[in-house]
Design brief:
506 residues, mainly beta, four-stranded antiparallel sheet, 2 helices, 3% helix
């Protein structure tokens, strides 16, 4: 006779896709008639803007545009100028199990950009793009609940297992519009030469079914002054938002990314050229994880009937460590001809990786630092150098570590003896999980027991190392409660080394 077991669906989301794709986008562009001829490209900066994302059958897709600003020195004119480009992109990643409606997370960013002058009126721009893509589906693992019925009496063993899983995948779009003003000591704006955004979430906390997150947008605007010099304005724009996160029963750990969807910076006609209008459209994407305790039906037997049990092996992820490490990377770049001053500096980071080294592990990321400076001869120059940043992490055997990396503040550079010193604050956030394997009952068949051989009236048994009271009771068709009562023992976790009296089953 096969017993019918109740099924229990585990709640939460299964990660069907978690990868980062890399691709190159190129575009030839003509210099508009209103812009002077290009003499020399000084630097190029780019930002990825995510317009849309979705899950389709077997795929996660995202699309947007790359906002590119080429700063150049024109032929026969003083002062830098800009060339603005928009390069469309589309990412598509195949993954089994993805269906329309699956929650997806897409985070694109630019890891490298360069511009080559084809002629004074034409350029070729090449952008290296990375996109972190995740696809989530409702958890499909099923556990069997312990059986109850009148057909037979079963001794049943369950085990409480911790499971660290995603319980909510949510998002919220929000906008910011305001005017910002240059400080008194800064020159007026003749032409905007591009801007940068540093999007930081400093706090994310789950309360009930709400996620409250706060942070800052650091806006840096590069511009040409009325005196044809390069200048930089900087503002901190705080934000605070509330997002709905369904399925969260208590406070959970949140991985939150904020990506740019659109941004516009325009000179406001205030009569002085010192006020800028800012409009930002941002998207917050959050994955909330929690530790859940799952009761796993592990084993069963009967003291009076023969029981055959089928099992399947389950693997749960358990939280080992979640931590954030802030590190300031310092490096000196040689500059044989020297420099008078640094005018601007920024760093773009690539995809972080984790490498195991015997008993230790390290998270590392490569990036590119760009420094605009005034040479000893008084000319405006750009220095582009690669950087490598590393931090130690704990990674147990069989552990899995997912690391994220971002600038934790503004990168800076200063002239030093023989070169330029870079100071770059970086934040590594890593989540380490370890697998926990256990067996779960999937089917039970019960048969009438035939005649048994006569048992001795008294059985004495020395519990062996690693042997549980359940193992002993099952082997002798009795119960753990009867063994404890016969030996007047409290319930031990491991009875090893104890001489036990094994009673007959009742």
């Amino acid at each position: 006779m096969e017993l019918s077991l109740n099924n229990v669906m585990m709640e939460g989301y299964a990660c069907l896709l978690d990868t980062t794709v890399f691709q190159e986008e190129t575009q030839e562009s003509i210099v508009p008639d209103a812009c002077p001829d290009i003499g020399r490209v000084l630097c190029t900066q780019a930002r990825a803007q995510l317009r849309a994302k979705e899950s389709v059958e077997g795929k996660v897709e995202g699309e947007g545009s790359i906002a590119v600003t080429v700063v150049y020195l024109p032929e026969g004119e003083d002062g830098p100028r800009k060339l603005s480009l928009s390069i469309p992109f589309r990412v598509s990643v195949a993954a089994a199990g993805i269906v329309p409606g699956c929650p997806v997370v897409v985070k694109p960013w630019v890891t490298g950009v360069e511009t080559r002058v084809l002629n004074p009126r034409k350029v070729l721009c090449r952008v290296e793009l990375a996109a972190a893509c995740q696809g989530w589906g409702q958890e499909e693992n099923i556990l069997t609940a312990t059986w109850s019925g009148e057909e037979c009496t079963l001794e049943q063993r369950t085990e409480a297992v911790d499971r660290y899983a995603a319980v909510s995948v949510s998002e919220k779009a929000f906008a910011f519009t305001d005017d910002v003003t240059l400080s008194t000591g800064q020159g007026a704006v003749a032409e905007l030469l591009g801007h940068r955004l540093d999007l930081r979430c400093d706090e994310a906390k789950v309360i009930g079914n709400k996620l409250i997150f706060k942070g800052e947008v650091t806006l840096q605007a590069r511009y040409r002054t009325m005196e044809n010099t390069l200048a930089l304005g900087r503002w901190e724009l705080p934000f605070s938002q509330i997002m709905d996160v369904g399925g969260v029963e208590e406070e959970g750990a949140c991985a939150l990314d904020i990506v740019e969807q659109d941004s516009r910076l325009e000179l406001v006609d205030d009569g002085e050229g010192r006020t800028l209008g800012v409009h930002l459209e941002l998207l917050a994407q959050a994955v909330v994880r929690q530790t859940q305790t799952v009761e796993v039906f592990c084993d069963a037997y009967s003291v009076s009937q023969d029981v055959e049990v089928e099992r399947q092996e389950l693997t749960f992820s358990q939280l080992w460590e979640e931590n954030t490490v802030n590190q300031i990377h310092r490096e000196i770049f040689d500059l044989p001809n020297g420099a008078r001053s640094v005018e601007d500096c920024w760093v773009t980071l690539g995809q972080p990786t984790v490498e195991r080294r015997e008993s230790e592990a390290a998270a590392s990321v490569r990036g590119t630092a760009t420094v605009l400076y005034v040479s000893e001869e008084g000319g405006l120059e750009a220095l582009v150098q690669s950087v490598a940043i590393q931090v130690g992490v704990t990674l147990p055997e069989q552990g899995n570590c997912r690391v994220r990396c971002a600038l934790s503040g503004e990168a800076g550079a200063a002239v030093t003896a023989g070169g330029i010193e870079l100071r770059c604050p970086v934040r590594f956030s890593y989540l380490t999980t370890v697998p926990r394997k256990c067996s779960a009952v999937t089917a039970i068949r019960v048969e009438e027991r035939g005649e048994e051989a006569e048992r001795p009236s008294v059985i004495l048994r020395l519990a062996q190392p690693g042997e549980s009271l359940w193992d002993i009771a099952k082997a002798y068709s009795t119960t753990t409660q009867d063994i404890l009562a016969a030996n007047e023992l409290p319930e031990p976790e491991r009875p090893e080394g104890t001489l036990l009296l094994i009673p007959r089953s009742r």
